[in-house]
Design brief:
By secondary structure, the chain is mainly alpha-helical. The chain has helices at residues 27-47, 51-69, 74-83, 87-109, 127-143, 147-155, 160-184, 201-227, 242-246, 251-269, 276-289, 305-309, 316-334, 345-364, 369-378, 382-401; strands spanning 125-126, 188-189. It has one domain. α4 (87-109) packs antiparallel against α8 and α7 packs across α11.
């Protein structure tokens, strides 16, 4: 069995071991992770409103789910683009189907836990979106993971992804600085919601979404049959109840869990799950520390200005991100898989370029694979579908770039782990 394609994208990742390599739980790491989580939870409960501790728990569950299912967006797009395997993309469609089913009543009736009101991610369609999503598609194939993949791979100990994350933050910060040019000086259409802009309402938009997901799933099956695409091999797993704690989880189970957790996020903080806005905040705070007048940037005017001046732990996206990393860390330790991996110069170069492209692209495209693709489509926004198309186009281009950095490109004869 070859290892050209892995669920979190690189063959030498420490979590991609054979079924006989499942180790005993790494109890010192688990205890340490639980202590860190408890300290952070206590701090949030003492200093923030109750939404923040709840978001930390949701983030932990997101990270645990992502790691145990090896739920990837990058590898799913690459498999489809390279050899026509659409199994993972169909898990995306299941996730989106469950998400729109949950989001429709929440958005229609304004259900929330803390009475803050709810709103989906519905963004304009213009040059900014097209360029940003295309750049992100290339970047995630070079950087070795998307936004969620970067976080959970860092939590799992994949060393090169720390490089990707660093330059993801830098790219997102530069993108925030340049964003007014892309959104104010270049043409764009107004945001389009399948529910509120078309007269369909949330019920009609839900039915249309399910029809679109079914059509896309059928197309992937046709492509698979035409290309005789190799199937994904079973992922190593514990058995019985231990599988819940130690993995690996079926993709369909993770798809449902991620959709439910995203809906809980919407009801907790009033907006869906997002990742990369926190990267722009982190990078801007560092730039501000070194004397750069970040507050004068157009991105940090208006509603965003308060976030720049407050502690990062008041930022709900930051809390979710920390939860994802910690959840993935606990999941990897529970499976006995946490171990820092080796890196080589070509992988580092790809991570630098990929991270910069993803960070910059995410700001231009109003989000990443989570905020724009997952959150956008779940919110019935047209921009989410366009993001997916352009990111897939970027993936096709990246297939020609990956060999330059020593990264594999799957062939039709390969099997998938």
């Amino acid at each position: 069995m070859t290892t050209s394609v892995q669920p979190i994208n690189e063959a030498k990742d420490p979590v991609q071991r054979k079924s006989t390599d499942l180790n005993n739980p790494q109890m010192p790491l688990i205890i340490g992770g639980l202590i860190v989580g408890a300290i952070l939870m206590i701090y949030l409960m003492a200093t923030q409103d109750m939404a923040q501790p709840l978001l930390l728990v949701i983030g932990l569950l997101l990270g645990y789910t992502l790691f145990h299912a090896r739920f990837g967006f990058t590898s799913a797009f690459r498999r489809l683009a390279s050899v026509g395997n659409g199994q993972a993309v169909r898990s995306h469609l299941l996730m989106l189907a469950v998400a729109v089913t949950l989001f429709a009543p929440i958005l229609a009736f304004g259900y929330s836990f803390f009475g803050t009101g709810v709103s989906g991610y519905v963004s304009p369609v213009g040059i900014s979106l097209l360029v940003g999503a295309f750049l992100f598609g290339i970047g995630m194939q070079l950087g070795g993971g998307c936004a969620s993949g970067t976080l959970y791979a860092v939590g799992g100990g994949r060393t090169v992804m720390f490089v990707t994350l660093l330059f993801f933050i830098i790219g997102s910060t530069v993108g925030a600085y340049h964003l007014p040019f892309w959104t104010e000086d270049l043409p764009a259409f107004e945001p389009v919601s399948l529910a509120t802009s078309t007269g369909l309402g949330y019920g009609g938009a839900w039915a249309l979404s399910i029809a679109l997901f079914s059509l896309i799933a059928w197309i992937t099956l046709v492509v698979e049959k035409k290309k005789k695409a190799p199937k994904m091999a079973a992922v190593p797993s514990a058995t019985g109840w231990k599988r819940i704690l130690r993995g690996s989880w079926p993709l369909f189970a993770a798809a449902i869990a991620l959709a439910v957790l995203n809906a809980l996020t919407l009801m907790t903080r009033g907006t869906p799950w997002g990742i990369t806005s926190a990267f722009a905040l982190w990078g801007s705070k560092v730039a501000q520390f070194f004397g750069i007048d970040v507050a004068s940037w157009g991105y940090w005017q208006g509603a965003n200005a308060q976030a720049l001046e407050a502690s990062i732990l008041t930022d709900s996206t930051t809390v979710l991100n920390l939860g994802v990393i910690l959840g993935a860390f606990l999941a990897s330790a529970a499976g006995g898989l946490f171990k820092f991996s080796k890196v080589n110069p070509k992988n580092v170069a790809a991570s630098v370029i990929g991270g910069l492209m993803m960070g910059y692209g995410a700001r231009l495209a109003f989000g990443c694979n989570i905020g724009a693709y997952f959150g956008g489509i779940a919110s019935f926004s047209l921009h989410g579908y366009i993001w997916g198309i352009l990111a897939l186009a970027g993936t096709f281009v990246a297939l020609y770039l990956r060999p330059l950095f020593g990264l594999s490109v799957p062939k039709s004869k390969d099997s998938f782990c």
